[in-house]
Specification:
1406 residues, alpha+beta, 13-stranded antiparallel beta sheet, 17% helix, glycoprotein, Laminin subunit alpha-4
Length: 1406
Amino acid sequence: MQSCKDHTTGDFCEICEDGYMPDVANHGRHSCQPCACPLSIILNQTIIGNHLASSSPRCAPGFYGNPMVIGDSCKSCDCNGNSDPNHIFNECHNVTGFCQNCWGDTAGANCERCAPGFYGDAISAKNCRECDCASSHCDVHTGECLPESTTVNLCNISCDECIWHLIGDLRLSNKTLDQVKVSVLNISTGAAANDRLKYYNYTAQHIDFVVCFFSPSNLKRSDANGFVQKALVTANVYNNIVQYIEEANITGLTTMDLASDGINTQLGFLKTQSENVFKESVSLRNEQFGIKHFLVQQSYLGSLTYTSLYSFPFQGCSHLFSQIFCSEFHSDLPGRTTKRLELTEEVAEGTLNRSVEVLQTITPIHEKVEEWATNMKHQDYSAAAFDRAVVSAGEAVENLSELVPELLHKLRVVEEKNQVNNVTTNIMRIRELIAQARSVAKKVQVSMKFNGQSSVQVQPHTNLEDLKTVTTISLFIRVDPDKDPIEDRFIFYLGDRNGRKDYMGLAIKNDNLVYVYNLGEEDVEIPLGSKPVSQWPPVFNLIKVERLGRHGKVFLTVPSQTSTDEQKFIQKGEAFGTDSLFDLDPEDTVFFVGGVPADVRLPPALSLAPFVGCIELASLNNDVISMYNFKQTHKMDVVSSTPCPRYKLAFSQSRIASYLFDGTGYALINNMERRGKFGIVTRFDIAVRTVANNGILLLMVNGDNFFMLELKNGFLRLMYDFGFSGGPIVMESNLPKLQINDARYHEVSVIYHYSKKFILLVDKSHVKSMENEKKTLPFSDIYIGGAPSQILLSRGITLKGCVKGFQFQKKDFNLLEEPGTIGISSGCPEEYFMSRKAYFTGESYLGSAAKTSPFDSFEGGLNFRTLQPTGLLFYHSEGSDEFTITLENGAVVLNSRGTRVKSQKKQYNDGITHFLVASVNNDKYELVVDDKDMHEKKRPTAAPSASTVRNFYFGGSPSSSIKNFTGCISYAYISRQDRDIEPEDFQKYTENVQTSLQDCPSSDFLCLSKVGRDKSNLPKGLLGLNSDDQEPGETEETPCYLTPRPRATRHAHHYGGTANSRQEFTDIPGSLSKRSHFSLSLKTQSSFGLIFYASDEAEDNFMALFLAHGKLVYTFNLGQQRVKIKSLEKYNDGAWHNVIFIRDGNLGRLVIDGLTVLEDRAQGSNVSWHVSSQLYLGGVPPGRAQRNIQRNSAYSFTGCVKNLQLNGQWLSSVSQTFGVTPCFEGLSEPGTYFSEEGGYVVLDDTFNLGLKFELVVEVRPRVASGVLLHVYTAAEEYLTIVVLCSQVMVLVNNGVREFFTQVTPRLGLCDGSWHRITVIRDANVVQLDVDSEVNHVVGPLNPSTKSARTPVFIGGAPESLLPEGIATRRAYTGCMRKLTVNESQVSFSKAALVSGAVSVGSCPAA
């Protein structure tokens, strides 16, 4: 080590000391100058950059900021050009930036508005003029004279400024949260954690400074229509964000330390490698070898994932990337070349050592580093070139930081992080803090004002599947018809970014509020004509739009200005066709309010001018939402367009001050005794309304001492321990008075009497009391409705419900004003207490009565989810006549007086939510499942039934012979003659037999519950439980990472992969023999293949559409003559093309894309021509079409077809499917995909799974359970491989008895990765290997068993062939590849049969 001077350090004096940074002088030499940041040694310097470095560093005149705060800098004053021109400097305060010398009759923090007594435009026109009014008071924008009483006093001006600064900081907070996300990644990888945590400190200090503006004592003096309450609530948001950032500091540091401790071995290895690079780089003689080693190291680091936690020790600056600038060299040091190479390497290593998502974005950086390293091998490089390389590396990394927030907007890396000892605990804690901060942002109940150019993109719903069946959006809107004439304007849009596919929105058209939605066919517009917008009062009005299946409604509530009466208006509409589901693509879905940027395309119905007025979002499907949880804003000037105040108690549903707890938040009252003192009698009162079974009401904790009042299974339960010798005391009972989850308010009081007795009152009546050792209450704080996880531990769960008030010693507390409160909101919507979901156990049902007549005119719909193949969904009877909707062996069946309509698909018991609609009219019965599976039957004539009130049941019935349903039913509706269609409120049903009205359990719980219920007829090993008495819900199952429904083109199917891939259509009209007009859309890259074919049995008469050399060919015969039309162009370009092929007697016509029209005609016209009642799409059965179609085109084409119509009518009567799946979008990869619609492959007879074989296959499931393989013999012997709740099981019956073996992989099978399964059988011995985890079983010997050649089913099997006791009968859903039997590769394209929805050769990529 040399003796360094001039504030340098390092082995070669090449690094600046702490507090100094490199500076390059004009003569090219380097020196170390003081950093423009908080210093450990105070120096006296002159101006540096835009700030003064003196004994008290501050910004230079004309600039503002605080260089003593990490992350802050000196920024130019912004006074909108309205500062005093006579002042050269000091335009604004050097810390706050507030302009101090506004000129031209302007005022404000940025001289942005006209001064009191003046009006005009202070920013653009700069034309502030004196008010021409007797009172000297006028509107600051228009000059309209105002009465003296409306003068805004100084306090109100201050409050307005508070709101402006608040809104600005809301915007800052959104950025801060994104940066917290980024920091979580950095903490989780251990890289650059320290500097990120320091940035937390800066943010916390800044937000804390802003919160100081919102002193309750300052704001309450000028409360107007709840405006102050708004500010207080929002200020609370930021108090909590400060708290979470501080907690994240501690947690992040702990995580970083734990990460470092947990990987010592790997870290040691990497440090050794680093030291080797350094030593080799010191000598110029070994530079070539050093560079080679560097490139090897780069390759190794590039393969690291985010679980490879790794960081370097730093000197000087703590930020990894600023190391570049804090470690410059003196130009005359001989070792600078290799030292700089090491720095470049360190930058690249720090970059490459990020998460997997970030790694994907920095391939160009990696390539650039390699390019630099290659160039450095030559001896003729210059120091300047190397300097540029180093600086360029730093810039590349800085640019990367701008990409990270986009990559992490769903926080997926943290959400999906694998568990690694204590590190995961800390990362999960950070995740919880971020989720809580987001939850708080969602509940900021403040409006935004739109000026006709602005827009807000709101964060979309976290789970778009929840919006499929029902979508409800509530919002408050304020317009002022007197100031802004009502014009056609856009209000909001939820849908695809490009204005395609499904969407919903709201607009003003022709002076009416108009609700618009589209479910895939035509737009539905519902105008609310009963209350024109021009007649709305200039206050906030409540609007609610609702969609249930095809049915839509728009509601308007106008508050009265003089009384408590309200005006309510409603209008309803209905979508055309059968589509009922709102399908949104998570990748392209946007939610815009007020307007949209230029790059977003709206559908024509909503392509209107942006909104003018104020909007405040209220809820989305009963979840509280706020525009302040935005993704981005566009031209939103919150200074000139301040939020409109909303009187929170204007509507009847919110007139009583109440608080909504949605299960994510809680209230915390610190230092209760500031309002009342503990005494001889200490009393707590709380009014609660809920339908939840479980939830915490009151909780106090002090060390090991605690007090908890909670709901347990719907009953009040009190548990406490103040250090009693006998341990905790529990007060619980099933007394009816203690059950309070009935959707009504209940007043609950807890009284502690003489420090030795607790008394519990419900609705002012004594219910129960409990005595204990005499001890005073050892608490000062109380949690209401829940608590943080580290406080909660295993004590209970947070409350879902409403709290009307809380009192301690009869003193009221405003929970929203308490600094510790997070995640709750004001108001108590009635919809929150309606039970739309029900869970049925197989022995339960719900019953009610209504004025309905299902046999004559009926429409009913519901969501259902189950793993049981059979169950009663809906039941109604009149005498011996029954109307039922059931599951039968996995299919949905509508039965009305013996007429049955059955779905085509038979795997609806797959644990996935499905939606069905059953309808009856004068002509037909119709059943539609998931918008795709549609069947109908003609209705026989019958006398109409009398219209009376009749009973009906969901989930079962007290009298039906059909097995009751097991699973979940939600958002059910039925047509009633006494009301509009709306979701059923199960809470109001008169009969509830063992039915839970809470949220439905997860698919994994259903999976385990199914196993638990079926354990009487399943092998014990299938249960997957550690003990007989363990609850199924205690098993930690993870849902499949990949969706069971990859993104696909609506109503489109993919054909190919096998020679006979096809769909077969029946019930073709007889008129086809005379004239036919077929149309379809086609997308393919095939040169040859059959697209469409129809013929008679002998194939003497036929019609076909096929590809030949990429050209479309349409042909049919007429006796011995043949019409043949061939396109001139090729259409196998992978794009969609619309094709129409017409036969009118002897005339044929082919129309392509509406532009190309080709015709051909056969001689004669009286020749008889007819085909059978079966059409083929995509291909034909083996042997057909050979005599009429050229050989290379007589087999299935590979591609997609959609919108097949005959004579303008959709063809939906598919009778059979062979190797056809939805037309998936996006990337694909080699393999065979078994779609959720169900299907299987039968191997050709060259493969035999007899008594001795070895089978290997790789799978990537998308559903947790399904049949992978099944082999059977006529003698009831079989071998079946199933995936059951992510475990693999081989079940064998060799004629003596059944035996099995199973493996539960440590990481499961549903993680989105490929998994290798090996099954080896040798007579009665079976071994199972899943990802190198092995198990085996030895069954009984059967000397008479002989090896026979039997069919091998892959991915599923016909229902009749599966054994009775098998745990799951559903087909496998997911990808499969590399199947070998006895080391011979299996080719599914040569299979004996491909049945159902199976795509051979292509899988949707993960």
